[in-house]
């Protein structure tokens, strides 16, 4: 018997201190259904990711290692108190939890019993079959402090993992030569990865359990995403955007899903607990793709005819320009209002200039990675495949890695620029007129 059931809840990247609303949502959605009378404890971890959380923030590796030390101490505190522990990790904290599993396994007989500890992970970048850190194993982007840790171990502790379809961090394409699938995954990082706490209990309950291989204590679920993230900009166009998106989405979905292997699903259908790196091309007969595109064309026309009347009957409203919803979570607290005195204007101008040119540092770090680290990684792939007698793979695997990483690098640069612009805007808006 345990003294109590403790649930340790961590935030994700950019959210080091779990807010009460976040903790309540996570408890309702993921903890209460499986833990009896939980005593919930919010755990503060760094959750920084240079340059996405700012050019002066910690590199991913440093942030994760600090978080790992904090989580390990929190787990043992509860274990030593005679409590059962449920660890909840989201995004970066799911990586922290995955590395903690590796650490506990290494302790052998000194590790906690599986009856004392379990894990619940969402948006896990180390998801064995989909997590971007597992899709491209062995890479270490040292200029950004970003190691690709590999897959969450198939550990003895009961572990439940939830992934949203098209979440580009946790559900990255298996075949990155499919550029549309890569771009959709990048949009999924921005628009899907950040929405787990907004799910409903019904969505969690209807999640699809994925197949696994062999005996395992790990369970994996996929939650369907209604629309392709790639079409979010098109859907945002007043009046005509939603009908046009409805017209092209069925066929575009077929093409995007081929990046995962099966044109019917936006995720890999092979065993979820088996580490699955990126590959070349899916083994799908051309006739299957052709039939899916024919059906998609018919569905798209029907959906367009349904959406069009509703769109035409809706008067467009011009929204106020705003930054994407993920941006505010990555910004520092806004400066307090200040009078527009000469000294304050000069200080703000200097700060704006400093913030503006600071974007050059991550740009240079990304560029350096692409001209040094990526070629070395590609060369290693080439040599290994050539040594194995796979000439075609020796040529195509480095190309696939380059395309997939280019999409990821472009996303990192884009977010860094947007966050920088938002920070500058926030500083300028601090003046009280």
TrEMBL record:
Presence of keyword Transmembrane helix: yes
Keywords in alphabetical order: Membrane, Transmembrane, Transmembrane helix
Residue ranges of the TM segments: 399-422
Domain PE-PPE: 41-260
Keyword Membrane: yes
Superkingdom of origin: Bacteria
Name the UniProt record assigns to this protein: PE family protein
Protein species of origin: Mycobacterium tuberculosis
Lineage of the species this protein comes from: Bacteria, Bacillati, Actinomycetota, Actinomycetes, Mycobacteriales
């Amino acid at each position: 018997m345990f003294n109590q059931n403790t649930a340790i809840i961590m935030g994700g990247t950019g959210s080091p201190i779990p807010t009460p609303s976040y903790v309540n949502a996570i408890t309702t959605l993921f903890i209460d259904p499986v833990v009896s009378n939980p005593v919930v404890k919010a755990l503060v971890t760094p959750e920084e990711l240079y340059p996405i959380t700012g050019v002066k923030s910690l590199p991913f590796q440093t942030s994760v290692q600090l978080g790992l030390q904090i989580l390990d101490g929190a787990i043992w505190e509860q274990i030593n108190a005679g409590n059962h522990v449920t660890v909840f990790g989201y995004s970066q904290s799911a990586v922290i939890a995955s590395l903690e599993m590796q650490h506990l396994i290494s302790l052998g007989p000194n590790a906690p019993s599986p009856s004392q500890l379990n894990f619940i992970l969402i948006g896990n970048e180390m998801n064995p079959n989909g997590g971007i850190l597992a899709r491209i194993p062995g890479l270490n982007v040292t200029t950004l402090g970003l190691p690709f840790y590999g897959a969450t171990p198939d550990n003895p502790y009961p572990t439940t993992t939830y992934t949203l379809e098209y979440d580009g961090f946790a559900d990255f394409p298996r075949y990155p030569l499919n550029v549309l699938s890569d771009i959709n995954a990048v949009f999924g990082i921005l628009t899907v990865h950040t929405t787990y706490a907004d799910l409903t209990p019904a969505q969690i309950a209807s999640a699809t359990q994925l197949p696994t291989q062999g005996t395992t204590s790990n369970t994996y679920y996929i939650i369907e995403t209604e629309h392709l993230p790639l079409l979010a900009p098109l859907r945002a166009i007043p009046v005509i955007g939603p009908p046009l998106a409805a017209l092209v989405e069925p066929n575009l979905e077929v093409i995007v899903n081929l990046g995962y292997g099966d044109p019917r699903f936006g995720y890999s259908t092979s065993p979820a607990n088996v580490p699955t790196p990126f590959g070349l091309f899916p083994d799908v007969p051309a006739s299957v793709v052709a039939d899916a595109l024919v059906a998609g064309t018919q569905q798209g026309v029907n959906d367009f005819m349904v959406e069009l009347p509703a769109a035409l009957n809706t008067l467009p409203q011009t929204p106020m320009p705003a930054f994407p919803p993920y941006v505010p979570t990555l910004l520092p607290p806004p400066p307090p209002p200040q009078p527009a005195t000469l000294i304050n204007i000069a200080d703000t101008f200097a700060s704006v200039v400093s913030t503006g040119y600071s974007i050059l540092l991550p740009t240079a770090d990304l560029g350096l990675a692409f001209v040094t680290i990526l070629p070395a990684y590609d060369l290693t792939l080439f040599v290994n495949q050539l040594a194995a007698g796979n000439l075609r793979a020796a040529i195509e695997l480095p190309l696939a890695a380059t395309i997939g990483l280019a999409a990821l690098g472009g996303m990192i640069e884009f977010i860094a620029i947007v966050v920088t612009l938002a920070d500058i805007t926030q500083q300028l808006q601090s003046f009280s007129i």
